[in-house]
Amino acid sequence: MNYYSDIKEIQFELEQSELMPRIVELKERNFADKDQYDDAPQDFADAMDSYDRVLDVVGDIVGNIVAPNAEAVDAEGPHCEGGRVRYAEKTYENLDAMRKAGLSGVTMPRRYNGLNMPVTVYTAANEIVSAGDAGFENIWSLQDCIETLYCFGSEEQRQKYIPRVCKGETMSMDLTEPDAGSDLQSVMLKATYDEENQCWRLNGSKRFITNGDSDIHLVLARSEAGTRDGRGLSMFIYDKRDGGVDVRRIENKLGIHGSPTCELVYKNAKCELCGDRKLGLIKYVMSLMNGARLGIAAQSVGLSQTAYNEALAYARDRKQFGRAIIEFPAVAEMISNIKAKLDAGRALLYQTARYVDIYKALEDIARERKLEPEERAELKKYSRLADAFTPLAKGMNSEYANQNCYDCIQVHGGSGFMLEYTCQRIYRDARITSIYEGTTQLQTVAAIRYVTNGMYAQVIEEMLQEAVAPEFEGYKTRIQAMAEKLNACTAAVKEAQNDELHDLCARHLYEMTGDVIMSLLLLQNATKSAELFAKSLQVYVNLAEADVEKHNALVARMTTESIENYRQA
């Protein structure tokens, strides 16, 4: 199986968007590299063909190496030996295949030996790898940390580190600590300046660090003595070649076994300041986290794709009472629901990636020259859209991954509870997606201001103005009715002027927003390709209507009943 060419919906998302020509134009700087680099595209069609060929290689490696290795990696897991991580044996095989194929530094400029591909293409690669093995995707995709170093590091640091990542060296982001999980303002890893050796030193510990024994680390540490909030934190680059950091232990996790989650001890570890002091959390970690959240959204979609594949294959093969179980309506409905959520979530994922692509490319251009007024307006527009859509894509897709993998096991029945079936692994792997890189509750906090300030409502209204195929006009009317309920609920919560009620209703408004936007994205997709998306549109709008009505009823109750009902002693 090729995990790219066999999934026509991924190819659709790359080829059918009206934003892709602009993304390619910005990323390629009007094809300025075509006379300098042999692998640089000559025009838009050439660029799209290049993306297609690279993703075909990814799909082939995942189908023939990563996915077949997944069960062995899950069973063995990584080991901690002498303060270092040793991956499961098959993980080295996976990494070697990706490195030999040149699949590192995907988004980095060619001058650093990168592939100079858009975030949207890298997101597709992340989805594909996750469908094969979500744990391995955690190791491979952390190359994306280099984006933060590229954006905020010095040119000397770029020249020093980016080519190494482009050759296949691994990365990690060392943020959380035993007493600082989601509350990163509480980070206390100490950074002090060594006057004698003219370098910074790190002392302390970090916990829950994905791929924590990587080659290059981005580390959040407290550089300002006497501070206890985010204003005292800076970002540092630690190179494992310099020593000073040991792996104390590898966490024993429910899922993503191939990915080593480490507790690290820093002992006077030499490091470099990345960017300016005091902006580590305020600016740089926010950039890191937004990239990571898009990555988890892609991981979630990949897991949902595998859930669909496994459920469908089993239901077609398994017979009960003389019939394949897919012929039973209860089973068919579960599989249809998985597919509808998969298609809706994927549409949201790629729309978000496209927004990220445009604003990041314009930010990069702004480092080279002053933007024109229309470019500044474009940057502002797509930066806000990316900021609004990223928590929606991460939260909704991670919840869908959990639901879809749960239903995949249910389709398998008793067999799904047995360890020899893939569905139990993806079920365990999916559980973390709604927790790490910001829980769904934190995604709600990040998104809710765009509900209450009317930005999502404006986006929805603009989407409702777009033309749809005549046969889908009825769906547009139904989605508009959902949007009106969302607006009414939002108004009721705002009119109450009660902060506690606002927080209590936030998740309901958040999910209603996701339901409406994903319904509209599926409507757009079905208009362009009814063959691929008409069935999912029908199923998803049915599900979304029921969900919106549920939240509508709950918000109505919450705005009229006592909040005390929701407090437990």
Task: Note down, in words, how this protein is organized.
The protein is α+β, with helices and mostly antiparallel strands. Among the domains are: 171-279, Butyryl-CoA Dehydrogenase, subunit A, domain 2; 451-566, Four Helix Bundle (Hemerythrin (Met), subunit A), CATH 1.20.120. The protein contains 17 helices and 11 strands. The chain has helices at residues 8-15, 20-27, 44-76, 89-100, 119-132, 134-141, 146-152, 155-166, 280-317, 329-366, 373-412, 422-430, 440-452, 455-464, 473-496, 499-528, 530-558, and strands at 79-81, 84-86, 171-174, 190-194, 199-210, 216-222, 233-239, 245-250, 261-274, 319-320, 323-324. Strands 3, 4, 5, 6, 7, 8 and 9 form a 7-stranded mixed beta sheet that branches. A hairpin with a 4-residue loop joins strand 4 (190-194) and strand 5. It is globular and about 70 Å long. The termini are far apart. The mean pLDDT is 96.
Task: Provide tags for this entry.
59% helix; seven-stranded mixed beta sheet; 11 strands; Four Helix Bundle (Hemerythrin (Met), subunit A); 569 residues; Butyryl-CoA Dehydrogenase, subunit A, domain 2; alpha+beta; 11% strand
What would you call the structural class?
Answer: alpha+beta
Instruction: Determine the number of helices (DSSP H or I, runs of at least 4 residues).
Output: 17
Strand content: 5-15%
Low-confidence stretches: none
Q: CATH superfamily name of one domain?
A: Acyl-CoA dehydrogenase, C-terminal domain
Q: What level of helicity do the residues show?
A: 55-70%
CATH class call of one domain: Mainly Alpha
What CATH architecture of one domain would you give?
Answer: Up-down Bundle
Cα-to-Cα separation, first versus last residue: 54 Å
Looking at the structure, the CATH topology of one domain is Four Helix Bundle (Hemerythrin (Met), subunit A)
Main sheet attributes: strand count, strand direction, barrel closure: 7 strands, mixed
Taken in chain order, the helices and strands follow as HHHEEHHHHHEEEEEEEHEEHHHHHHHH
Rg measurement, Å = 24 Å
The average pLDDT score comes to: 96
Task: Describe the global form.
Answer: globular
